[in-house]
Amino acid sequence: MIKWTEKTVKVSALRPFERNPRKISETDFERLKKSLQENGYHQRIIATIDLRVIGGHQRIRALKELGYREVQVLVPDKTLSDAQFRKLLIQDNLPFGSWDFDILSADFEVEELVAFGMPESLLIGDEDEPESAEAGVGDAEDDDARIVHCPKCKHEFSILTEKKAKKR
Q1: CB under 8 Å to 116, separation ≥6 — which residues?
Q2: Residue 75 contacts by C-beta under 8 Å, 6 or more apart in sequence?
Q3: How far apart are the C-alpha atoms of 70 and 64, rounded to whole Å?
Q4: Cβ-count burial of 50 within 10 angstroms (0-12 exposed, 13-18 middle, 19+ buried)?
Q5: pLDDT tens-place string over residues 55-70
Q6: What is the domain partition of the chain in residue ranges?
Q7: Domain 4-91, CATH
């Protein structure tokens, strides 16, 4: 098992992996910078012993633009094999879970989740996708809520409209 230690290093000492398979849009990059400004640096960069970056390439770029000179980085207790490096390069960016849309729809408004950075497309699905027959076309509830589907897992949940949200 690999043991990781936090180490403070100069941002300029970190060596981005030239074949990093992750990319970021300019819009998402600006959101990342805003998040770092508002919440501080809290998701650690991981790197090899010789500071070749495994995970956190976009954060490094954002931190540089924000004027950070030093950051805390997690480094392994041993030299990684090429296979370990490649595995971590991918696994560090995988979402190991999914959203509970029942809880999200009960505890958060869509606008709030979008403001927090959750892609609206994840919440309301494709606009061209027909709404569920259970959406209750013609029901009294139509003005208060609408049924949407997660485009990833097809989970169905209700989004409160402005009218219903004001009743809360």
Answers
A1: none
A2: 4, 5, 7, 46, 47, 48, 49, 51
A3: 9
A4: exposed
A5: 999 999 999 999 999 9
A6: 4-91, 101-167
A7: 3.90.1530.10
